[in-house]
Amino acid sequence: MWKTLSKNNAAKETASWKTDHIPVPHFENDMAPLREKLVEADSNTVNFLNENQSEIKNRKDYFYDLKFGLELYHILNEEYNFSERNASDDEVWIYLSIRVVPDLVYKRWGLTESRFYKQSRRIWLRTLWWYIHLSWAGSKEETYNRLKSFTTDEVVQLVERSGPRGYRIDLTREIMKQFSFAYENSDRLLFRRIMKVNTARLKVIEPSLALGGLAQYVKELIDYFDYTNGDTNKEPEIKYTTSS
Known about the structure:
By secondary structure, the protein is mainly alpha-helical. The protein has two domains: 1-156, no CATH class; 161-244. It is built from 14 helices and no strands. α2 packs antiparallel against α4 and α4 packs across α9 (124-135). It is globular, with a radius of gyration of 19 Å. The protein starts with 6 loop residues before the first helix and ends in a 16-residue tail after the last helix. It holds the Pfam family DUF6339. InterPro entries: DUF6339.
């Protein structure tokens, strides 16, 4: 059972934090191994950034989030049997953020309350886990290669646009797969437009009913921006199957 911390209790605990001091972890003993692994993941991520500056260029924050996110995802899933149900509980993330690794959250975001507990989809650790989960390509290496051309804005667009029925894991992974192939060096606003149109269409249609299935739905969704030049007032023409 994962330990939790409510928003109200988080607010009380963080009220005593000083702006010029790094928050100090305080957790039960059984959380010590997890903290050790996450601190090591942070160290490995920093080393990666230092060794790959030519690739990273001016996207240091994004590559930190990507590499640390992959390590976080691997540690929680493979070593602690973390599940989507666990990941959907904000109070689990709040506990980890405030009790286990507040110093790591602070290093990335300072004392920004929303990144610790205040806004569900902006809790930093939660956002990283879901970004990797929604983009997963089968392994850490393949997922890294899929996501290395993206930016922090894509993290926001993917994680914060869940659709009317929550996250569609199969759909988002297909979108990330096809977009990474088709638009590696594209205008970054294009991804935002694609996600905006997709979110709107999910309210009225079921992607799996498109002729050719989910992959064809995503292909037509992406392709439509080629002939509309990004004009989102024009609707993509997507064909659907009908029941006999």
